[in-house]
């Protein structure tokens, strides 16, 4: 009988205890496989090295908060900026695309974002990738109370083309007292549903700026500040100009002149055409990477807005949590180490029941080295079986956790056969193959101590009849 058959025979005889040992190894492997896979996918989604834009412009405050709120819809906005900030960016010759975002409402927890129709025709959520409609049509900038839903938002809410829904004030479904009232008098109609993108956009409800302003026309406060570069850029004026502060009298005169002109054209303000109000942020795509730093400095030197570069902010975020990340990874390695030690102890203890069997094998001509190989092979085989089960359990964990992560953060966690993990700057290796190679090898090493004990078995002593 060859060594492998002997190992399998012994495993079958002690299947219950060995199954528990293999399961402990499997749990450790599952934790490592799931942790590394989820970590890799979350980092890829958050770092988004293939962003189709370079900059986010918003209110002064936390730069990271601005990025997390605008790009990933996490947390609350830093604040609001004037619409003229967007207009100034749109007319800047360095800017290829400026896309306004206005937040303030939600439907069943899915945030409603006011923007322009350029988000469907010009905006790249990733390099070379534009939104595609699965059903219906996109809204036009001058339309009101039409909505285009991300795939996840449509799926979870059950809304179909033509359905109407009422927004809730605030950015979460359950809001503070006095904040979460419904805009019953301003229902939205579903005009389109987007194809899945695997980004936060899947859980956003898009509408027009005009719709957001109409809903909040009685709540928005008017500010008297003017944006940086509040006029279109001329060929001889390449930099964004900072407008000088008006005197109080000049502001009043300008305001009075505006009212006179408005009365001349409309006599009274038409509520169906609301004044241009505040927005939350502007997504900016520059014409050339050379302009990005210059524009970034211009905006941040001013007092009315700040510019953030998403890629840099996310790198800083992962730098902050890297120590915690390594600690968690060390804990998962410790779980496997404890499992392997447990396996070593189980095999060592089982030798007391197998010494007579080993002595008989030795008396029939089996060499000490063969006995040593059988024990180490058994440890390696148990570890191998535990690793395979652990990889399967890891996939199950990713599948179970993935839906929750996607729903809460918009980050898609996919279950794939192999998950390459970057080991060096230019080299990646599938974590599953790495575990299949490493854990059984470590298991075989863990079996060396009981194997040495079996190697030294006294044949004459253990062949004596059992009293």
Automatic annotation (TrEMBL):
Keywords: Cell membrane, Membrane, Transmembrane, Transmembrane helix. Residues 330-457 form the ABC3 transporter permease C-terminal domain. InterPro entries: ABC-4/HrtB_transporter, ABC3_permease_C, MacB_PCD. Residues 20-212 form the MacB-like periplasmic core domain. This is ABC3 transporter permease protein domain-containing protein. The chain crosses the membrane at residues 20-38, 326-351, 371-393, 433-455. GO terms for cellular component: plasma membrane. It comes from the Bacteria. The keyword Iron-sulfur does not apply. Its main location: membrane. Residues 224-274 are annotated as: Disordered. It holds the Pfam family FtsX. Residues 239-274 have a biased composition (Basic and acidic residues). It is a multi-pass membrane protein. It is found in: Cell membrane.
């Amino acid at each position: 009988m060859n060594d492998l058959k002997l190992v399998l025979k012994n495993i079958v005889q002690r299947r219950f205890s060995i199954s528990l040992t293999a399961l402990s190894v499997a749990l450790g492997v599952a934790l490592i496989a799931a942790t590394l896979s989820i970590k890799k996918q979350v980092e890829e989604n958050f770092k988004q090295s293939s962003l189709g834009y370079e900059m986010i412009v918003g209110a002064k405050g936390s730069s990271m908060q601005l990025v997390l709120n605008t790009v990933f819809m996490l947390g609350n906005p830093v604040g609001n900026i004037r619409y003229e900030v967007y207009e100034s960016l749109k007319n800047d010759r360095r800017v290829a695309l400026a896309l306004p975002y206005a937040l303030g409402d939600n439907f069943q927890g899915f945030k409603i974002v006011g923007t322009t129709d350029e988000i469907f025709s010009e905006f790249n959520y990733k390099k070379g990738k534009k939104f595609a409609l699965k059903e219906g049509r996109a809204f036009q900038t001058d339309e009101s109370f039409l909505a285009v839903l991300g795939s996840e938002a449509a799926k979870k809410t059950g809304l179909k083309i033509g359905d109407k829904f009422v927004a809730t004030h605030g950015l979460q479904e359950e809001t503070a007292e006095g904040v979460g009232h419904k805009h019953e008098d301003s229902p939205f109609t579903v005009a389109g549903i987007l194809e899945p993108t695997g980004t936060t956009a899947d859980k956003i409800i898009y509408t027009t700026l005009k719709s957001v302003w109409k809903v909040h026309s009685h709540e928005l406060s008017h500010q008297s500040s003017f944006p940086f570069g509040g006029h279109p850029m001329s060929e001889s004026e390449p930099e964004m100009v900072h407008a000088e502060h008006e005197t109080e009298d000049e502001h009043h005169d300008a305001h009075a002149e505006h009212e006179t002109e408005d009365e001349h054209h409309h006599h009274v303000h038409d509520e169906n055409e609301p004044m241009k109000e505040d927005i939350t942020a502007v997504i900016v795509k520059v014409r050339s990477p050379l302009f990005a730093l210059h524009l970034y400095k211009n905006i941040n030197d001013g007092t009315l807005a700040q510019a953030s570069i998403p890629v840099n902010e996310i790198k800083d975020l992962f730098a902050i949590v890297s120590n915690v990340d390594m600690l968690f990874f060390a804990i998962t390695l410790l779980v496997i180490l404890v499992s392997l030690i447990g396996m070593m102890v189980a095999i060592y203890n089982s030798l007391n029941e197998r010494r007579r069997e080993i002595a008989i094998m030795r008396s029939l001509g089996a060499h000490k080295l063969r006995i040593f190989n059988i024990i180490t092979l058994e440890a390696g085989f148990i570890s191998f079986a535990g690793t395979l089960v652990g990889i399967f359990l890891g996939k199950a964990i990713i599948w179970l956790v993935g839906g929750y992560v996607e729903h809460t953060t918009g980050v898609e966690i996919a279950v794939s056969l192999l998950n390459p993990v970057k080991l060096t700057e230019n080299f990646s290796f599938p974590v599953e193959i790495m575990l299949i190679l490493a854990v059984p090898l470590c298991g075989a090493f863990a079996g060396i101590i009981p194997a040495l004990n079996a190697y030294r078995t006294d044949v004459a002593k253990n062949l004596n009849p059992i009293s």
